[in-house]
Amino acid sequence: MDRLYNIVKQIDKNDENVNILLTAIRNLGQQLQSLQRHAASFDESQYNSSATQLQAELEGSIPRIQDNLVQNDNLIQRMMDLFFELDAGPHLDKLSTEFGNYQQVHLEKRDLIDGYNHEEITLETLVASWPQDNSIKQLSSEIDELSALFASSGL
Questions:
Q1: Cα–chain center distance at 27
Q2: Is the distance from CB of 53 to CB of 3 less than 8 angstroms?
Q3: Which of 35, 42, 130, 147 has its CA 20 to 30 A from that of 104?
Q4: pLDDT tens digit string along 120-147?
Q5: pLDDT of 69-96, one tens digit each?
Q6: pLDDT given for residue 155 in this prediction
């Protein structure tokens, strides 16, 4: 159970990192829009320098999001292996269901990143469409409950 818990905690941490990056993207996008609205008050080289810097920061966030998603891909595989190893009996049914919910949302996130990378969607669409999900936190709670049950029953 500890291994499951540790995997879920790492996935949750990676998801939090992605949420921080998405917030940064939103903020950088707003700064870029503000800069564009006030372009007339800057000299051209100052404007170009600032716009280029903001754009580079925006574009640099996507690979970091992808890195977190790849880490979660690997953790998901480890978790699937662990479920198989534990023989996913009836005591793990609820965990399996929550894990399946998380996997579905994770695939949606991967699809959004792929859509952005293939220039099928804009950065604004990616950020606006990013699924807000608490299934990994729910999975963590289920593991806590199951661990407590096992501890109290002596298993």
A1: 18
A2: no
A3: 147
A4: 999 999 999 999 888 888 888 888 887 7
A5: 999 999 999 998 888 777 656 667 778 8
A6: 53
Question: Has this prediction a pTM greater than 0.70?
Answer: yes
Asked if 76 contacts 103 with a C-beta cutoff of 8 angstroms, the reply is: yes
Q: How buried is residue 87: exposed, middle or buried, by Cβ count under 10 Å (0-12/13-18/19+)?
A: exposed
Q: How many residues are present in the chain?
A: 155
Q: Which residue has the tokens 């292996």?
A: 81
Over 93-141, what HEC string results?
Answer: HHHHHHHHHHHHHHHHHHHHHHHHHCCCCCHHHHHHHCCCCCHHHHHHH
Q: CA nearest 138: which of 112, 100, 89?
A: 100
Report CA dihedral (56, 59, 64, 66) to the nearest 10 degrees: -160
H or E, element range at 44: helix 44-85
CB atoms within 10 A of CB 95: 22
**Other Cβ atoms closer than 10 A to 94:** 15
Query: Within its chain, how far is the Cα of 18 from the centroid?
Result: 4
